[in-house]
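Check my protein:
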Amino acid sequence: MILKKRIVRPNLGGALRPRADQPRRNFLYIEVTEHERKIIQDYCVRNHVSISQFLAELLLDDASKPKPTEKVILRPELEFTAAEQEKLELLAMLHNKSSVHELIRDLIQRSLETQHLHTDRETTMIRFYLSQEEHQTIATHIAAKRLPAGKYVAMLALKALTKDRSKKT
């Protein structure tokens, strides 16, 4: 006797996405770890929404927002020994930088400018469906960001879930 795993239907009893003009035959994948997939699925089950609907609405909402033009200031707290701090100051001077902050910024900037974002983490794929019009909107939005679609959408989903958890507490 073969036991079949019970299929979880997160959107059971929830509101469905509005009907599109055309069938949702286009799709995108997101890359998440098994733990992240479980978090997304649990959220969708609690909120009676399908994973596909959650991801599509999240990305369409992101695409509809205006692009922020202001710069964001990050103030990381880094710990160094006195000897390491002196070495950083010397490196800044040798690289003709006015401060250690400018040196660190330049070092990080090089990593941000590379086009390949790779990790060694083991991931699984989640597919979500879009209509032709939705797919075109999202493809244009992601292309403008110049980020890998699967990783960007996963980041958006996890940020949304973190924001949702912080609202509840």
Notes: The first helix runs from residue 34 to 46.
